[in-house]
Write a structure and sequence with these properties.
The structure is a homodimer of 435-residue chains. The N and C termini of chain A lie far apart (48 Å). The longest helix of chain A has 19 residues. Chain A is built from eleven helices and nine strands. The N terminus of chain A is likely disordered. In chain A, strand 7 and strand 8 form a beta hairpin. In chain A, strands 5, 6, 7, 8 and 9 form a five-stranded antiparallel β-sheet that branches. Chain A has a four-stranded antiparallel β-sheet with strand order 2-3-1-4. In chain A, 24% of the residues lie in helices and 19% in strands. The first copy, chain A, is α+β, with helices and mostly antiparallel strands and 435 residues long. In chain A, helix 3 runs antiparallel to helix 5. Chains A and B meet through helix 1, helix 5, strand 4, helix 7 and helix 8 of A and helix 1, helix 5, strand 4, helix 7 and helix 8 of B. Chains A, B: Involved in the recovery of exogenous heme iron. Extracts iron from heme while preserving the protoporphyrin ring intact. Chains A, B: It is an enzyme of class 1 (oxidoreductase). Chains A, B: It is found in: Cell envelope. Chains A, B: It comes from Paraburkholderia dipogonis. Chains A, B: Belongs to the DyP-type peroxidase family. EfeB subfamily.
Chain lengths: 435, 435
C-alpha cells in the first residue's frame, strides 16, 4: 500500500524525540538522583512518584515476588504451539531481553528511525511512551505443559520437571473454566499503572507469535491508603498475616525453592499458584456486619483479629470466651489459613482484585439468584517454596470448611515453576535448558 | 445466627476512628488548605496528590462532563423493574444523597456504631475506607426506557421525552451485544482510583435493589504522562482535537443542552453516547507504522497532524502534496471526524480504555482469525448538546468510510439524557418529575 501513498515528511525528528524520551526512561534512576541532588529536601514527594519508580530486572531472584506490591497487574498464560526446543529457548531469550528493557522504562526493542521505520510494524505498540517505568516487574513461569503435553515430551524436558510442580488436585467447590485455567508459560507484569502492566504482556505475547499463543490474560488492581494494608473488594484488609518479605530467613523457608535433586535449576525460584476467585459482591454486601467478621475472623474496620484491638495484634486461636467457645470461629478464614492450622506452612500472597464488568450469573448458593452480576473478585496469587506443603493443604482445608465459600467461587486456576532470576547476557530458564 | 455467637467486644472505638476518617475525607479541601498554609511552598507535590482531589457534587451542571478527566471510570446502566413513578423518584433522591456524600470522600450513608451496627448489613461495603475522595465524580443519565418501555408509559413521562434523546440508528458495521447495550438509567463514576470508581457504582446499584437492576457495568482507565494528552491502546494520543472545556461559549454551543420547548428540564444538561469499541490489538500491532498513521491522519509519536510538526498544530484538510493528493487521507479518522467534515459539529469526547482480559474471538476482517484475543479497546464516551447534530452524523460517516474500522468493532451502545446538576436539598432529575 505504501507505494500509492502521498509522500510524507521524514519523521527522523519525531523519532529522535521519541528515542530521547525512551532513553530518559531507561535512566530514570539516575535522573531521579540528579533531581534529588539539585532540589535537596524541598521535593520529598518527587521520590514517591509512582511513575518514576524503577525495579531491577536481573538478579538472584526474579522481580515481582518479594517486590513491594505495585498498584496494578496483568497476568497471562500462553500455550506453546511449537514442537521445537530451540524455538522455546529463542522465545525465552527474546522475552528476557525485552523484559530487561521494559522494566527499565524502555520500549520492547529500539524504535527504528527515519524512512526505515515506516514500511514495517513498529517493535513496540507505543502506547506507554513517556510514562516512565512505573515500578514495572515482569515474572516468568513454566507450567506443567512445558515438560509434558498430552503425554508427549515435546522439548526433552520431561525428566527435569520438578516434583514440586504438581498438577493441582480438584478442590471442593471448584468450578474451573477451561479457558481461564492452566497454561504452559506464565507472565506476571506488575506496575504502578494499568496500561504499563498490560503493555508489557502485550509486547511479550507478540514476540511469541508462531511459538506460543495466549491462553488467558487478566488485569488486576490493588487500592489502598498510602502505607496501609489495602482492602480487597470484600472491604477487609488483605495480606496482614503474610510472612514478612523483609526477613530473608522467612523467605528462604517459605518462598524460595531450594536446589532439590530433581530440579537444581529451580534454586532461587519459587512456585506460583494463580486462582481466579469470583466473589458474589451483591450477596456479600447484604450480609450482616457481624457475620462478615465471623467469616474472616477479623474486625472489618480495624483489621484486628476478633477480640483484639489492632490490625497487627497476634491471632490467638486458643482464646475462648466465658462459655468456652473459640473467639475466632472454627470455620473462619483467618483460623483455617493460619500457619498454626497448617503444620506451620506459610505462603506469600500477592493478590490483586479484578473487575471485568458484569455478566449473567447463576449463583450456586442460596438464594440461587440468576441475574446480571459483577464479574469481579480476586486474582489470588501465592508464591511458595513447595505447593505440596503450601497452597495445596491450606486450600484443601479452606475449600472444605471456610465460611467464605458461601461468597466465593474458584473459576480459574494455574500453577507454575518460576525459575530464579537471570544474569545479564543469559536468559530466564537457562538453568533448565543448559545445565 | 447472631444469638448463637460468642460475645464480641464493642467496636465503638473502631467505628469512631472510621467516622473520623470519613469526616476528614469530607473536609479534605480545608485540610489541604491548612497543609498548604503550614508548609508553604515546600511541598508543591502534596497539592497534586490524586487521592486528595475533591470535586463538587451540587451545581449548575453535573460533574464528570467538563471535569478534567480522572484516571479511572466505572460506567453502568440499569433497567428499571418497578412500575411506580414514586419508586423512581425515591431512587433518584437516594442516589443524589449518596452521590453527594461519596464524591466528598464519605461513605454512601453514615456507618452505624456500636452493637446496633452488628446485626445488619452495613450501608457501605467499606472497601475504600481511608482512600480519600480521589476526585470522584458521579454522573446520572436517563435512557429512552425511562420514558417509554415496550410501548408503555410506565411513569407518565412519555410526553416529556426530549426529541434529542433519539434511539440511535444502526450504524454500518455495528455488532452490538444486547447485554452491553442500552439501559434505562446511567451511572458514570470517574475517579483517580479504580476501586473508588467501582465502589461508587456498587453502593448506588445496591440502593436500587427492587427498583432497578444492573444491565451492564464496565471498568475503564486512562494512562498518560502528567500534563500530556494520554495515548489510547492504539498508541496514538486521544482527545487532542476536543473542544476546550476552558471555553464556556464552546461548551454552551456543543456540550450543554438548552431549554428546548419539549424538554426545558434539560437546560444545563447534556446528551451522552457510550460505545464499547473492541480493538483487534494483535492485528493493529502487526500493521506498518505508516499505515497506522494514514489511518489516524496523525503522526504516532508526536501526535501532529500528518505533515505538521507539533501535536496542537491545526489540522489542515485542504493541504495537498505536489501531486495534488490530500496530505491527510480522505478516509483517515482525523479528517472524517473533524468539524470541517461535519457541518461544524463537535462533541466532547471523554473516553477510557477498557481491558477485560481475553476471550475467544472471531475477527470479521481478514485474516479472519479465530483465536483467544484481548477483549480490550475503548469505552467511547461523548457528551453533546444534541446527538442529532453530534454523534449520529459524525459516526455515520466514520462507520462508512473510516480506515480504522478494519481494527475496531462497536459491540456496545447506549444513549442517555444527562440532566443538569442538582441543588442541595433537591435531587438529580427533579426538573423532569416536578415541573
Amino acid at each position: 500500500m505504501a507505494n500509492d501513498q502521498p509522500p510524507r515528511p521524514k519523521r527522523r525528528g519525531f523519532l529522535k524525540a521519541g528515542g530521547a524520551a525512551v532513553a530518559a526512561g531507561a535512566s530514570l534512576g539516575a535522573g531521579l538522583a540528579t533531581s534529588q541532588n539539585a532540589l535537596g529536601k524541598t521535593q520529598p514527594h518527587a521520590l514517591a512518584d509512582p511513575q518514576l519508580a524503577v525495579e531491577p530486572f536481573y538478579g538472584t531472584h526474579q522481580g515481582g515476588i518479594v517486590t513491594p506490591q505495585q498498584s496494578h497487574t496483568y497476568v497471562a498464560a500462553l500455550d506453546l504451539t511449537t514442537e521445537k526446543r530451540e524455538d522455546v529457548i529463542a522465545l525465552l531469550r527474546a522475552w528476557t531481553d525485552a523484559a530487561a528493557r521494559l522494566t527499565q522504562g524502555g520500549t520492547a526493542a529500539p524504535l527504528p528511525t527515519g524512512d526505515a521505520a515506516d514500511n514495517k510494524a513498529a517493535p513496540d505498540s507505543g502506547d506507554v511512551l513517556g510514562l516512565g517505568p512505573c515500578g514495572l516487574t515482569i515474572t516468568f513461569g513454566f507450567g506443567p505443559g512445558l515438560f509434558t503435553h498430552e503425554g508427549k515430551d515435546r522439548y526433552g524436558l520431561a525428566a527435569r520437571r520438578p516434583a514440586a510442580l504438581v498438577d493441582l488436585p480438584r478442590f471442593n467447590g471448584d468450578q474451573l473454566i477451561k479457558e481461564k485455567t492452566g497454561g504452559d508459560l506464565y507472565i506476571q507484569a506488575c506496575a504502578n499503572d494499568q496500561q504499563v502492566a498490560f503493555h508489557a504482556v502485550r509486547q511479550l505475547s507478540r514476540l511469541a507469535y508462531g511459538t506460543a499463543a495466549m491462553r488467558w490474560g487478566q488485569s488486576g488492581f490493588l487500592s489502598g491508603p498510602r502505607g496501609q494494608t489495602p482492602r480487597n473488594l470484600m472491604g477487609f484488609k488483605d495480606g496482614t498475616n503474610n510472612p514478612s518479605t523483609a526477613k530473608p530467613p522467612l523467605m528462604n523457608q517459605f518462598v524460595w525453592a531450594g536446589a532439590s535433586a530433581d530440579a537444581p535449576w529451580m534454586e532461587g525460584g519459587t512456585y506460583t499458584v494463580v486462582r481466579r476467585i469470583r466473589i458474589t459482591l451483591e450477596h456479600w454486601d447484604n450480609t450482616e456486619l457481624d457475620f462478615q467478621e465471623q467469616v474472616f475472623g477479623r474486625h472489618k474496620y480495624s483489621g484486628a483479629p476478633i477480640g483484639k484491638q489492632n490490625e497487627f495484634d497476634a491471632v490467638d486461636l486458643k482464646e475462648e470466651d466465658k462459655d468456652g467457645n473459640p473467639v475466632i470461629p472454627e470455620n473462619s478464614h483467618v483460623r483455617l489459613s493460619n500457619q498454626a492450622s497448617n503444620n506451620g506452612a506459610q505462603i506469600l500472597r500477592r493478590s490483586y482484585s479484578y473487575n471485568d464488568g458484569t455478566n449473567f450469573y447463576i449463583e450456586r448458593w442460596p438464594p440461587w439468584r440468576q441475574e446480571t452480576e459483577y464479574d469481579a473478585g480476586l486474582i489470588f496469587i501465592a508464591h511458595q517454596s513447595d505447593p505440596r506443603s503450601g497452597f495445596i493443604p491450606i486450600n484443601d482445608r479452606l475449600a472444605k470448611f471456610d465460611m467464605m465459600n458461601q461468597f466465593t467461587t474458584h473459576v480459574g486456576s494455574a500453577i507454575f515453576a518460576v525459575p530464579p532470576g537471570a544474569k545479564p547476557g543469559s536468559y530466564i530458564g537457562a538453568g533448565l535448558f543448559e545445565t
